[in-house]
Every structure is written in C-alpha cells, then in structure tokens.
C-alpha cells in the first residue's frame, strides 16, 4: 500500500445523493425566499411611512443618473448569498458523511482480520484526526497481540527450561536413591556418598524453585514495594561482609569503594539486597580469573549509580546483549555445573524495573561491570 493518502472516489450512487441533496435544498430555499419576499413586501406596502422613508433614502444617495437600487434587488442579492452558503454547507456536510462512510468501510475491512491494512484516505479537518486515531488504535491492538504472543511463547519457554533444569537433578536423586533402595552399595562410605549427592541435588532443586518463585513474583505488575529510608553505603558494606568467606574460597577480594557517605535513599531495601546479592553471586561464579570484586556507588542528581565490577575475563559483546535473559548462561551450556538457576540476573533486572531504574552490563579486558541506576526517592518518583 502506498504511503501517499488516496483521494476518496465517490460511487455513482453517492454522486446522485449529492445531486438530490443540492436539488432539494435549492427547492426548499426558493420556497422560503418566495415566502419571505411576499411577507416583507406586504409589510412595507402596508406602512406608508416606511415606503416614504425608503424613497427618501433612495433620493439621498442618488449620484447623477445613478441611484440606489430597489430594496427588492438588494434583498434578492442577500438571499442569493445566503442560499449559496446554505447549499454549500448542506453539500459539504453530506460529503463529509460519505467520507465517514468510506472510513467505516475501511475499518470494517480491518476488523475482518486484515490487521496489516491501514486507513489511507485523503481527508481534511476532524476526519483526518479520526483516521489517525483509528490507525493508532489498530497499531496499538496489533502490538498488544504481538506482545501477548511473545508472553505466551515466553511462558512455554519458561516451562520448558524449568522442566529441563528440574529433571536433571531429579534424575540423579532418583538414581542414587534407587541404588540405596535396592542395596546396591558395597559399604557405608558408598551409602553416605550416595546420600550426600542426593542431598546436594535436592538443594539445587530447592534453589531453582526459590528463584523461579521470586522471578514470577517480581514479574507481576501489581507487586508492591515496601519502601523505607536507609543508607546505601551501609547496605553494600554489610553485603561484602556476608560474602567475604565465599569470596575467600574463590581467592577473590571483595570490597566497597565509595567517596561519598552516607548515601540515603528511599526504596525497598529487602529487594535491593536481593539485586546486589545476585550480582555478587554472579561475579563469584562466572567471573573467570577474577581476583577482585568492587562495589561502588555515587550520586548523580536525583539518582544513585551502583556498580558491581570484577577484573575477570571479558564477556563477549553478543553475550552482553542477552545476559539478563532468564536461563541465559555465557558459557552457552544448559548444564548447571556452576550451580546457578539462570534466573539471578533476570530477577535483578525485574526488581530494578520495579523501582523505576535501569541495569546494564559493560565488559572490557580490564573490567566487567554490572551498573544499576536507581532513583534516590522512590516515593517522590511515583508522585511525579
């Protein structure tokens, strides 16, 4: 379809409608004019003073052989102008009705399933606004349908991925418990080893279910935030203390680097702890060859920028673009050798969006950083 609006071509029936509309209007106006002229003529001739007054006016404006025309001629000219305006108004009104009829036909065509079609008619005035509104509504409907299909596909993908990640440890649990059930172990050491493996796989399943529950909860649009006021720097320092032993196991130094303290902000502290915990866990598990994790924060106008950075191996650009997708792993494997559910970064992103902020990752040969931008006052942002 051409982008250039198409001029509406009237059908033969519509042209006859316009002709009859004009004919009837002219006929009614002639009858009205005739009646008005008779009434005014009778009114003037029944009043001699009015007749004399008109005669005196004619004499007063006489210039040589030229004098004012008779009042009938002046009145006729005024009536012709009035009639022309009325006829034009009636015809243009009917023409706009016909244009609206064509627009409705186009709308019915779209409603019958041709959602790729748009009203592309050349009109003017309010009808042009009507067409713009219709096209905008259709675009919005189509986008909503596309988004709904994406959500359905996303749900299917979520179920598939969860089923896969649960089935793997569940198969191991059933296998080792089956060996124990059938007495297929040689000594107590084998028995304890089987029980330990089954227990570890159970913890892996529990972690996945908890992450899935948290992800589903924060994805809901009606999720409420429990906003409190707290010192962000103190929160980051507490997190480094909590992860210090885990970092030592990986031979990684974890520290807080801030130049401004305190940084007071109003937000859901519990959910933000989950965000930064997930980012730290991600750095510990996937920061290959990293020796240090640095948590930094600084204020920029009404926002605060928090960075969780490590000096590990650079993440390829194509992975950075998808890193916040659920179940996405940089190593490109669906195996859970690292013990993660693949939902940590997706949960972090959802919580940040709930706060009206944004999160993104950057990676160079020197540093990989997950940067979070959050409003300092969530209550004030909601009011604005």
UniProtKB/TrEMBL annotation:
Signal peptide: none annotated. It catalyses: ATP + protein L-histidine = ADP + protein N-phospho-L-histidine. PROSITE patterns: HIS_KIN. Its EC number is 2.7.13.3. InterPro entries: HATPase_C_sf (IPR036890), HATPase_dom (IPR003594), His_kinase_dom (IPR005467), HisK_dim/P_dom (IPR003661), HisK_dim/P_sf (IPR036097), HssS/ArlS-like (IPR050398), Sig_transdc_His_kin-like_C (IPR004358). Residues 161-378 form the Histidine kinase domain. It is found in: Cell membrane. It is a multi-pass membrane protein. One of its GO terms (cellular component) is plasma membrane. The keyword Magnesium does not apply. Keywords: ATP-binding, Cell membrane, Kinase, Membrane, Nucleotide-binding, Phosphoprotein, Transferase, Transmembrane, Transmembrane helix, Two-component regulatory system. The chain crosses the membrane at residues 18-40, 74-92. The keyword Transcription does not apply. It comes from the Bacteria. Pfam families: HATPase_c, HisKA. One of its GO terms (molecular function) is phosphorelay sensor kinase activity. This is histidine kinase.
